[in-house]
Every structure is written in structure tokens, then in C-alpha cells.
Amino acid sequence: MRPATCGERGSVTVVAAGMLVLLFVLVMGSADVAKTLAAVGRAQTAADAAALAAAQEQVAPTGPGPAAVAGQYAASNGGSLVTCRCPPDGTEAVVAVEVPVGRMLLLAGLDHVTASARAVVDLGGG
After folding, report:
1. CB-CB neighbours of 17 under 10 Å
2. What Cα–Cα distance (Å) separates residue 107 from each residue in 4, 30, 80?
3. 61 by DSSP, 3-state: which?
4. Strand spans (E) along 1-126
5. Burial 74-100 (b: 16+ CB within 10 A, else e)
6. φ/ψ of residue 102, rounded to 5
7. Where are the domains of the chain?
8. Nearest-angstrom CA–CA distance, 114 and 96
């Protein structure tokens, strides 16, 4: 007579292999989410710096113009300036900056993130 567990031999190996595949997919997805969140932070930092630099250039011009200065600050923070609504004679700068995410492990198609920022210069004395 054969033991009753003979037909289930190796079933733990199949379950363990399935769990390892699931764990691998979860780790790759988590890495992609972490990479994307880091890029969002870099994009917001670059947008904030670009907007502040453009607003300062609007009220205290040094020569190149608000859009050019915003582009320089965006680039120095790892991004590229997408739009800049910052007229040279204005007191408000609205910019959008794009930052590359990098190669994704699991989530295909997401290659950059965009952030925007607004800076207003208050020249009022009161």
C-alpha cells in the first residue's frame, strides 16, 4: 500500500516558484514607482528653481531674459524647459519643466515627467 501523500510530491516547489515570480514582479514594479517618484521630485525642484529665476530676471534684469534664465536653471537641475509664460516686463512667471525618468523595468512607455511652478513678485510696500 502506498502513502496518501505520494501524489502531492513536489507541490510545494510549484507554489514556491509561483511565489518567487510574484515577488519578482512586485519588486520590479516597486522599483519603477520609486524611480518615477524620484523623477517627480526632481522635476518639481527644477520647475520651482526655473520659476523663481525667471521672476527675479523680470524685476532685476541681467541681460539674457526670463525665459533664457529659466531654461538655464531647469537644465542645471536636470530638466528641460517646456514652456515659460514670463514676459520681460511682468511680475509673474509660470513655467513647465520636463525631467527624464530613465529606463523602466516593468512599466513601459513612461519616459519623462512634467512639473509646473508659478512665482509672483510682490513689489508692494505694504
Report:
1. 10
2. 45, 10, 23
3. coil
4. 80-85, 92-100, 112-120
5. beebebebbebebeeebeebbbbbbbe
6. 105, 180
7. 9-120
8. 7
Query: From first to last of its 126 residues, what are the pLDDT tens digits of the chain?
Result: 555 556 667 788 888 999 999 999 999 999 999 999 999 999 999 999 999 999 999 999 998 999 999 999 999 999 999 999 999 999 999 999 999 998 888 877 789 999 999 999 988 765
Terminal-to-terminal C-alpha distance of the chain = 97
Confidence (pLDDT) at 92: 95
pTM for this prediction: 0.81
- φ and ψ at 94, to 5 degrees? -125, 120
Three-state secondary structure call for residue 75:
helix
